[in-house]
Amino acid sequence: xxxxxxxxxxxxxxxxxxxxxxxxxxxxxxxxxxxxxxxxxxxxxxxxxxxxxxxxxxxxxxxxxxxxxxxxxxxxxxxxxxxxxxxxxxxxxxxxxxxxxxx
Length: 103
Hints:
- By secondary structure, this protein is an alpha+beta fold.
- It has five helices and four strands; from the N terminus they run H-E-H-E-H-E-E-H-H.
- The chain has one domain (3-102): Glutaredoxin (3-Layer(aba) Sandwich), CATH 3.40.30.
- Helix 2 runs parallel beside helix 4.
- The longest helix has 12 residues, at 3-14.
- The chain is globular.
- The model has no long low-confidence stretch (mean pLDDT 96).
């Protein structure tokens, strides 16, 4: 495993809720990242750890390799990849994201 993938693995495993996104929770820099943050806030998440992929090109590319998922944002809960913005929205609307976060 490369250094970048190890760094990502440590981030994912050391925080309960991790969102790899463009920008920050306060200042999202794309609509999908902004929507992802809003969905998590609506779920009552207070311990969100965000990683701004725009600050590090190796993380930006590495996260795509880590999850075998081509887009950003990417959500991880308890070390498990959940999905991107669209999947988060679908899960939220079905009540599944709230259950996953409450478990």
